[in-house]
Amino acid sequence: MITTVKIELRAPVARIIFSVDPPGKPPAVDYDVIDQLEEAVKGIASAGPDIRLVLVESSEPRYFVVGANLKALQQIDSQSIRPWVRRGHDVFNMLQELELPVIAVVRGFAGGGGLELALACDFIYAADNARFALPEAGLGLIPGWGGSHRLPLRIGAARAKEMAFSARPIDAATAYDWGLINWYGPEEELQQKLEEISASISANSRISVAMEKQLINSADSPDNPRMKFEEAAASTAAMSSSDTSRRLEEFFEKRRKK
C-alpha cells in the first residue's frame, strides 16, 4: 500500500490530495509522504497570485488520513522517534504558516497524524461521514505532530483530554458541537459550501487575508519550537516503556493475522 501526495492548481484553488494504491485503503504517512507534503506546500507557496486558498483532502471517500503507516510504526523505536516527531512538526508548521487560507476537507476517518494534519489547517469542513480520533494512547504512544497543543486550542482542554485519554472517535456532529470543525453535511452540500467559501475568500484582498492569518495565528498558536521539543521528549519516554512495546507487538500481531 503506497500513499502519494500531489497538488492540483486550478485558480483560485490549490488542492493537496492524498491518494493510495491500491484504492479503497486509508492514506497513511511515512517519511516519503512527509517529504511529498513538504514539496506540495513549497509548490503552492510559489504558485503565484492567482491561487487564493488551499484545500487538503483525500481521494478516498471513507478516509482522510490515518497517521503513520504500518511500516513506519515498525521502524520507530526510542532512538528514532525523536527525529520522526521533529520532521512531522517541521512540515505541518510549514502548512500552518502558508500565507494562504488552508481548509482541511475531511471525508471519513481522520485519526492520529491525520487529525493533526487537519489541525494544522486554518479550519475544517467535513462530510457527514467524518470521524475524528487520537488513538495513540491505545498503542502507548503520544500524539507527536502538534495534536496535544493544537487540539485544546480548538475544543478546550477538557474535551481534548477526553479524546486523547479515551482514544475513542467522535462523529461529525460532535466535532461541530465541540468546535473542532466549522461545518459538516452531505457530500453535495459540502461541494457547494467549498465553492461558496472559495468565492468569498477570492473576492477579498489577498494581502489583507494573509496579514489577518498571520495576526490570528500569532495570537492563537502555541510556541511551535517548544511544542516540537515537548512532544518529541514525551514520545521518546513513551516509546521506551515496556507497556508500549507490548501494545505495539499486539497491534502488529493482529495486523499480521488479517
TrEMBL record:
GO biological process, one term: fatty acid beta-oxidation
UniProt feature, compositional bias: Low complexity: 232-243
Compositionally biased tracts (Basic and acidic residues): 244-258
UniProt-listed PROSITE patterns: ENOYL_COA_HYDRATASE
Sequence segments annotated as region (Disordered): 232-258
Molecular function in Gene Ontology: catalytic activity
Pfam families: ECH_1
InterPro entries reported for this sequence: ClpP/crotonase-like_dom_sf, Enoyl-CoA_hyd/isom_CS, Enoyl-CoA_hydra/iso
Family the UniProt entry places it in: Belongs to the enoyl-CoA hydratase/isomerase family.
Name of the molecule in the record: Enoyl-CoA hydratase
Organism lineage string: Bacteria, Pseudomonadati, Spirochaetota, Spirochaetia, Spirochaetales
